[in-house]
Amino acid sequence: MKKLFNIGSIALLTSLVIASCGNADQGKSSEVDHSAHTTEATAETSAPASTPSTTAAATSNTITVESNDQMQFNVSELHVKAGEPVSLTLKHVGKMDKKVMGHNLIVLKSGADVAKFTEEALKAQATDYIPQSSDIVAHTDLIGGGEESKIEFTLDKAGTYDFICSFPGHAGIMKGKIIAE
Ligand SMILES: [Cu+2]
């Protein structure tokens, strides 16, 4: 029964330890310390409970990705189910025109040469920097501030797929991975 509380109580115990460090006048602080150490040691071997989960989005085939005037996507890793349709909406939450700070989101085939693709994209100004390429799984439109573009696609095979914004100069920062499971 005691083990059930291990994971959930790490944060509490940590704060107790911190509190006890700061409050030397607390008579029971050493007692708390001992239990904290024991619990932490157990938790370490049982589960990666303290792994940060802020960027690891839950697996979902309905996705909204935001892009902004600072040349950023708000996510770098997406998890979807393989073999099922994915509905992805790209939003530009900034204000700048697409000619200056345009964004798109291009999903590339697993194993595609991203650097090579990015070079090809540079030459494709006439088609909003979306080149004729067999490496593309799906792509949104190029959008500017306040706009959005929605696409649907299916990643048939489990694996890792790169996504980028192909607007000139953006792919180095505006990139990420879709993991199909
Ligand atoms: Cu961009």
Automatic annotation (TrEMBL):
Compositionally biased spans, kind Basic and acidic residues: 28-37
Name it.
Azurin
One Pfam match: Copper-bind
User: Gene3D superfamilies from the entry?
Assistant: Cupredoxins - blue copper proteins
- Signal peptide range equals 1-24
Q: Which domain of life is it from?
A: Bacteria
Keywords in alphabetical order: Copper, Electron transport, Metal-binding, Signal, Transport
Spans of biased composition, class Low complexity? 38-57
Location of the region described as Disordered in the Swiss-Prot/TrEMBL record: 27-57
What terms describe the molecular function in GO for this protein?
Answer: copper ion binding; electron transfer activity
In this chain the Blue (type 1) copper domain maps to: 63-179
UniProt cross-references to PROSITE patterns, sorted A to Z: COPPER_BLUE, PROKAR_LIPOPROTEIN
